[in-house]
User: What shape does this take?
Amino acid sequence: MQIFDNDYISRLKLNYRCNLISRKRKIMKYHKINEEDITNLRSFISDSDRFITKPTKHWDHDQFKTTHAMPDLVIQPVTNKEVEQIVKYANDHKIPIVPRGNSTGLMGANLTVEGGISLDMVKMNKVLEYDPNSLTMTVQAGIRLKDIEEYLQNKPFTYMPAPAMHWATIGGNVATNAGGLKAVKYGVTREHIRQLKVVLTNGKLYKFGAKAVKSSSGYSVKDLIIGSEGTLGVITEVTLRLYPRPRKSINAIIPYPTLDDAIKSVPAILASGVVPTTVEFMGRKVIDLWEKYANDTFPIRTGNGFIIVGIDAFTDDELKAELKRALDAVKPFKAQKAVVLGADSPEAKKIWGCREALPLAIQKSTPKMDEVDICVPINHIPDVLDRVDQLETEVGMRIPNFGHAGDGNLHIYLCSDDMSDAEYAKKSNKVISELYKTAKALDGNMSGEHGIGYARENNFESFYGKDYTNLLRKIKNLFDPNNILNPDKIFPLEDK
Assistant: This one.
């Protein structure tokens, strides 16, 4: 995930390509909220300031602010009971209801595209239990990652996943199975969730999972809920897995003559026995854009391709041994002298600042921008980048990119430059289609971090096939037969 400041968000004009009017979807007959509904729903909420009958623009968009969809009503619950009552009422009266966190998503998953209720979870933000003896922590779904980090900062245990948007809520992270910079070593959100409490459309609260580490006990509904983008149930509580906090960490920035050389070295790093926290890639082209954007100079002047390897450990000896194995592994790939920095050094912070600001730098260079975040096996990253180079020539579009080399997740940006809106829409549609074809042929996925949401819903079936999508439709119908939970997300309800 990327960090986007307010200036970036306000200027970004991501084209979702399918608007609210023209989208093909199963026609659902939803109940329009009336005064009787307002009266009944208000009775579930004790505080009037948490019951918003005249929503403002705050609730009509996600981070990209491109597609706008205003809810009819915003409700901010603070207890499981309130969620149970609201969800049951919505289901009984066929009112669409969309769970919402801090709206840091990029694919429109939080948009109330059918109107109805925006169930804003941000006031369910408490730490319910810190249990170091079981290495767990239980929190309400609306708590921000930033708040979890602050709660644990002076404790010996930490929550490892590190999506870039630290103001995102944990419920949103669970709903999208968010990744982050530490996914290479520690995995994505799913690997760190022990237990969920979820309200289903019958208005009942269910516990899925347990504090226990192992389970060979039937279907894992917990893992089904994770990544479902609020389409199956409303997450209210999350029990997190904690890790002992590593005492040592360093970053090695390795330059190469070309980006291709850099990318091809990654499997060798991972095969060497090193288990890095982070393996990122970026090329000189995007660094040049950052230098112009930031009016600054990248600390390393040699090389045109770069790998950033992060390593953590509990002792200096462990750290040194891991670093040596990594640097030995990249020697056959024309690796130049690595720059090794303490994780908290000013130089390391500057390099990571460059990496995190790359989306801003790319956006600053063009009037409009779109993004694809396909994920492929790491050995096929060069194949994707070769296809990107081909598409730049074939389509006549600038397509800068960078990404997570250690897990095969690429961030590929489509720049409009001097194109007309119509030309840009046509060309970007072509590029997105071709990149999805490439990812599918390489046994990859449509999205590694950002989800499907509303923006890519109509691409889902063509990527994963009718039989698979129909199976998901059956699951959706089982959990949500009235289709009131976050409608028009992930895949269309009817086949094409």
